[in-house]
Amino acid sequence: MQLSTLNLRKPHQKSYRLLPRIASFIGTSNRMDLLTDPSGSRRYICIEVKQAINLEGIEHSQIYAQLKAELMADRRYFFNKEEQQQIQQHNLSFYRQTLAEEVLRDCFRPAFEEDTYELLSAAEIFQTLQRHNPTAMRGANPNHFSQILATAGVVRKHTKWGNVYRVHRLNNSPQKE
Description:
By secondary structure, the protein is of the alpha+beta class. It folds into two domains: 5-94, no CATH class; 99-169, Orthogonal Bundle (Arc Repressor Mutant, subunit A). Helices cover 31% and strands 15% of the residues. The strands form two sheets. Strands 3, 4, 5 and 6 form a four-stranded antiparallel β-sheet that branches. It starts with a strand and ends in an 8-residue tail after the last strand.
């Protein structure tokens, strides 16, 4: 999907050919939580279909003609940074949450300006979550935990001792030992 060219062998042909990627794809799912990688969600525009789609009056040849005319006129065919951020924001409800993310939301939330907050390392937060729910955290990887914190919207601050995260501890979160 990310490649600009495809190296493939078509059915019943003997050799491989280098072909340009010329189209994206459309897919469907019966699940709402189909996205797993926040950094790649800009590639998807997720839409929940709540009723049958009315296809009457759509002239597909005109859609193709409009697209071709816009490309020939050098119109932009990719999303800019602001549009990518809007897409990622829109897609938030389509993410699959890991158990570690659920435990994190049970114990901490990102701190707002007016909140009392703590500056904790990813390792300290991870250890707190392990004390809170060791079973759910059993499969979690502490090395990738900072990605989970970033996905949850927790602000990272770099200090001379390393990165710390600004979190507000919720009432059901175990205190430091």
